[in-house]
Amino acid sequence: MEQSVAIGAHNFASIERVVFGQPAAGVIVAEAARLGSRRVFIVASRTLRTQTSVIREIETALGDRHAATFDGIPQHTTRGGVARATAAALEAEADLVVAVGGGSVIDASKMVLLCMRHGMTDEHLEALDRFEVKLGEDGKPVRPVFDGPALRMIAVPSTLNGGEFNGGCLVTDERRKLKQTFFHPLMMPRTVVLDPALTLHTPESLWLGSATRALDHAIEALLSTTPTPLADAAVLDGIARMARALPAWKAEPQSLPVRAECQVASWLCSYGLSSRGPQGGVMMGPSHAIGHVLGGSCGVPHYYCTPVMMPAILRWSEPATSARQPQLAQALGRPALSAAEAFAELVKSLGLPATLRDVGVDASQFEMIARTSMRELFIHGNARKISGPAEVLEILRLAA
User: Fold this and answer.
1) Residue 145 maps to which CATH number?
2) What is the Cα–Cα distance from 394 to 318, expressed in whole angstroms?
3) Averaged pLDDT, 237-243
4) How far is the C-alpha of 166 from the C-alpha of 131, rounded, in Å?
5) Can you tell me the distance from the alpha carbon of 153 to that of 88, in angstroms, rounded to the nearest whole number?
6) Residue among 191, 189, 170 nearest 179 (CA)
7) Residue 58 Cα distances to 90, 164, 230, angstroms
8) What predicted TM-score, i.e. pTM, was given to this entire model?
9) Domain of 116?
């Protein structure tokens, strides 16, 4: 039988540089000089700013180039937090944004670039809806056309979720309890700085939970309806590296080489995000869609959504992904198990929550979660088609 020819497209990211294994302060100064920036605006994790010397060291290293620092971004990146950060950046006359912190800080910084370009500073960012990536009637993403940011950013992540490697972000509308997706290629950082020493201040639950988010990006890319050969190769290596590095980190959490390996693994795991699809990467799937609802509507920390949902999604999707799931189990270092069992074992070994019950979500919320998930962009990225709330309910019950 004649085999069909694989078709597709691989988009390369607008990131110029990934600097790894070096102290962040010196890299930021060098990058600001390279980019000709004189007014550097820092969006920082409040914990890093108030409980460590990390931000102060960056400010001191920048000297006269430092314009201002903002540390008021809450978890899940709210519109109000973005509005306040944008107003502060405009007041500081920023010509470069540097995000130092976790995924919420990095997503907020991407949105600050967009809001500065389009003059949005009101408390609820009323004009923001017109920039949202929405779901079309055919189930495909509809990305609006608009002018991208004039300013760019540098990202210095303190966690492992890998959101810095794409031009998309999530923002929570507090009034509607809704997470929305936004994307522009120029919202992607010009430079990503991976400094293992900076991560020493990251709490264990956030470090491990964000590592599972990186694995989530890799798994959904591997099992996506829009894979690419380069993304496949990168994410499989990333999964294998992360599966080895996390137990090593548990044994030796202060080891900078181990932390650096976790960061490199996250970078590789996130490669699918920057290669194709609605965020510029491979189309993500139901773990992202359901996770957005768990976070936005149920208050579940984003870094706990993956350990809870991924084994159930793998089980439910197995009929359509049976050829690739053994590759995943192999990369996770457990080839004798199913992919779902291999991932669940990893979660258990890390001491992370494993069920919806563990994160305070019970069956009375399942109908709402299922309905809301069907409005999410990524619900249609699964290899096994999800046609309606009934299929989402099946997945939720597997994760109960």
Assistant:
1) 3.40.50.1970
2) 14
3) 98
4) 17
5) 16
6) 170
7) 21, 19, 35
8) 0.92
9) 17-198
Quote the percentage of the chain above a pLDDT of 90.
Answer: 74
Q: Is the pLDDT of residue 252 over 70?
A: yes
| Number of domains the chain contains | 2
What distance separates the 2 farthest-apart alpha carbons in the chain?
68
Tens-digit pLDDT profile for residues 32-45: 999 999 999 999 99
Q: Which residue pairs from 327-333 have beta carbons closer than 8 angstroms and sit at least 24 positions apart in sequence?
A: 327/222, 327/236, 328/219, 328/222, 328/223, 328/239, 331/236, 331/239, 331/240, 331/243, 332/239, 332/240, 332/243, 333/240, 333/243, 333/244
Rg of the chain over all Cα atoms, to the nearest angstrom:
20
Q: Is 364 a member of any domain?
A: yes
Please tell me the predicted confidence (pLDDT) of residue 283: 65
Q: Which amino acid is at 17?
A: R
Spatial neighbors of 115 by CB under 8 A, at least 6 apart, are: 82, 83, 86, 121, 125, 128
110 lies in the same domain as 210: no
| 181 and 214 belong to one structural domain | no
**Closest to 114 measured CA to CA, from 84, 143, 148:** 148
